[in-house]
Amino acid sequence: MVPRYDTARPAADHGRTPAPRPLRSVEAMIRAERLTKRYGDRTVVRDLSFTVRPGTVTGFLGPNGAGKSTTLRMILGLDAPTRGTATVDGRAYAGHPAPLTRVGALLDARSFHPGRIAFHHLMALAHTHGIPRSRVEHVLGVTGLTEVAGRRVKGFSLGMGQRLGIAAALLGDPAAVVLDEPVNGLDPEGVRWVRTLLRDLAAEGRTVLVSSHLMSEMALTADRLVVIGKGRLLADTTVAELVRDAGAASVLVVSPDADRLRTLLPAPARTSDEGPGTLRVTGLDAPAIGRVAAAHAVELHALTPETASLEQAFMDLTHDSVEYQGAPA
To answer: Alpha-carbon distance 218 to 162, whole Å?
Structure first.
């Protein structure tokens, strides 16, 4: 028989995200200082330094094999650095007397006993820190799991497992939250919910560090980005600055005399064909292109600036750090 979850004492705010509230504890800053991790003769993380500040959502990005998971594990005390330090609020994770109240983390959405019901999984974690049942009920409501709290987690989908992992991360009402690929397996509504949750947590003054391969979500969610490749820091910046510095913005030009216009554009303009009579121009902005066209009586039908995407900027930045690159079929 599957154990039943006693719902006789539901939390008052089940089914809705609670309003932001002041933290019970002081803000926590995550800091990596010259982190290095070697496994034998292989260096996975190299002299990596960055700071994740309270009140912001910081995206942690990098290609597969860049060292993201290893870095997160060092921040959470699961891997010991070969050199350097990783601290939260000035202490190593293990140095906090009640770590769940300082840092809530999701690294593996399947890190639970498959035979245990969701409610009991969270209660087992709560008992380690003296966290009351009401808090367990609260995070079940926040993550939308109240109705399935009495089900064994082995029957959970990947998306439900992600929600349970996020509930565990929020259990201690932590000052900092570290999430590794939290939207994996979630449907569009779930992805939007995670996006809103992260923004709300940062608005409460918490420190939020989240890794993701979904550049579109990072563009909508993150305040800052830490990008690594082959274990090294490539960028510590904002989304807007990364896109701007990548220089990937372009202008779409439509003209019946596109071929002649191509020959007239000065350096550093670069062009590519987008179809009959259509050019994509990078390295020159729309007003400059318009002046060239006017000076040489080139008829223009359209001159459309297009902002570069975070995905393209990320690809350009990490091109030399990709461990495995496919070839055209």
So the answer is: 18
